[in-house]
Amino acid sequence: MNTDLQYQIALTLIPGVGCITAKQLIAYCGSAEAVLTSTTKALLHIPDIGTALSHAIDSSKHTALNRAKEELNFMEKNGVQALSFLDKSYPERLRNCEDSPLVLYAKGTANLNAPKVISIVGTRSATAYGRQQCENLVRDMAGLYAPVVVSGLAFGIDVCAHRAALASGLPTVAVMGHGLDMVYPAQHANVAREILQQGGAILSDFTSKCQMSPANFVKRNRIVAGMADATIVVESAEKGGALITAGMAFDYSRDVMAFPGRVGDKTSAGCLKLIKTNKAALIESAAEVAYNLGWDVPRKQPVQQSLFLPELSDDEKKLFDFLLPAEAQSIDVICRSTGLAMPKVSSALFNLELNGLVKTLPGKMFLRL
To answer: If exposure means fewest CB atoms within 10 Å of the residue's CB, which of 8, 44, 283, 311 is most exposed?
Structure first.
């Protein structure tokens, strides 16, 4: 039995010891075992550890260690892996968040430190519009960027994101608000099985047999936000879990993006609020997500011009051949790459857009259609 891991799990079970305090204690004492074998008097010398907490550690440690031993047995029987905060396989992006879990429980084989990871969240009451936007986004990202897709396996946009990732051959990670001895909601147990079968993972920072609580799902949202490069909100009411996750991602200095919706729609109110308060960038496509994140897209070979293209000038043809679908370019890059002066590029791009061959994106980016 992994004694060090047993002590780490036990430390997370001590009342009053949260993620931040647990890591502070380990940093001061040197290990979780050193924390739990210290006397009350020794603990009182640790900065910010008062009498109440030191007594709580001393009075609860034996019960916590026995419970941790039970959890290790559960993990061994059920193929659950515990990722310690100091393990190489622990999600590096999440590790950089102050309130990241000391121990993360995982099933599956997904690379939690993949080069590209996005979280997709939204309302449980998803509309047909929201589901379509979610599916389009995941499908389009799969072809060029192949990110790991993270969400919470809840009803609505969450499970839509997981299913879209599975359909597109992308690994997807479900973060749970309970232990890995169950799947909630039970209706998504088949999706959870598919996630594991197709190279994904299921994560939680809760032990098995933990008591279900609404607060658990708010707590798990920090993992959804913290382990990704960006959090994308597809649909959300003015209040709800998706906005909490977006707020956490914003506080972690991660990119937050949101799809716009129709003014007055309840499921668009949250996205519009994020955009209006400058907490989220407005997006409409996978290309805009990639641009906001600075992802490099492998250039494809130029596609041969269709015989049905309108007659183009030499400058327009040069720009059309340079621009590629799903790879937006700034006007400065276009000028440098083609050798054309800014006035000629601006005029040619304008004519190409009039002919429906080029689309202008936010930030003076241009994309070939």
So the answer is: 311
